[in-house]
Write a structure and sequence with these properties.
about 200 residues; 9 helices
Length: about 200
């Protein structure tokens, strides 16, 4: 192989691999940050702690995210957007009680599969006085709006935003209660308990 051609090919392979490495490093940092902050809280978790848990240099966190605050804001925004997309997909084509049951099931599944993020979201998304409060509220409202839209369509006489938030919150907290204090319960048992509280709320 011509040396120049070989060097060009190697350079191209390296260029393609770089974004993949950055993506992998970014996810390592996110996973470590979510786990640590869920247990300790944002203020008690340092960048050094996150870097050590992720197995990366401290500078990588600043290079990828800019700052600890920006990192956390991105983690929350992306996580809640993922949840919102999952909820919309779960409720697509359904109305009334069937749609609400699908949303409860999907939110509970998310809590079960991403318990650290669910704990983090419960602690931080509803906290006031944070730097990221306004931007996070936008994506939080989108997530709760999925519940509110189902309520409004089936029962326009209700305060859809408040009722939707109530069901969302009850599902989130019950899911965390299950994982932390009643792990012997099955998914179906927990789902049935939540849905029992909404029985008769919506037609269908």
């Amino acid at each position: 192989m011509d040396i120049a051609v070989g060097l060009e090919a190697a350079h191209a392979d390296g260029a393609r691999a770089a974004p993949a490495r950055r993506s992998g490093t970014r996810q390592q940092i996110i996973d470590a940050a979510v786990a640590l902050i869920a247990n300790r809280g944002f203020s008690a978790t340092s960048v050094d702690d996150i870097a050590a848990a992720a197995g990366v240099a401290k500078g990588s966190i600043f290079y990828i995210f800019g700052s600890k605050t920006d990192m956390f804001e991105q983690i929350l925004s992306e996580g809640v957007r993922r949840l919102t997309d999952d909820l919309r997909a779960a409720g697509a084509g359904l109305t009334g009680a069937s749609a609400l049951a699908a949303l409860v099931t999907e939110l509970l599944r998310n809590v079960h599969e991403h318990p650290a993020f669910a704990k983090l979201m419960t602690a931080e998304v509803f906290r006031t006085g944070r730097h990221w409060q306004d931007s996070i509220r936008l994506v939080r409202d989108e997530s709760m709006a999925v519940f509110a839209d189902v309520v409004h369509e089936a029962r326009p006489d209700l305060d859809a935003a408040l009722v939707g938030a109530a069901v969302f919150g009850a599902t989130l907290v019950t899911g965390l209660e299950w994982l932390a204090f009643q792990p012997e319960r099955t998914f179906d048992e927990v789902r049935a308990a939540i849905l029992a509280t909404t029985h008769g709320l919506l037609p269908g």
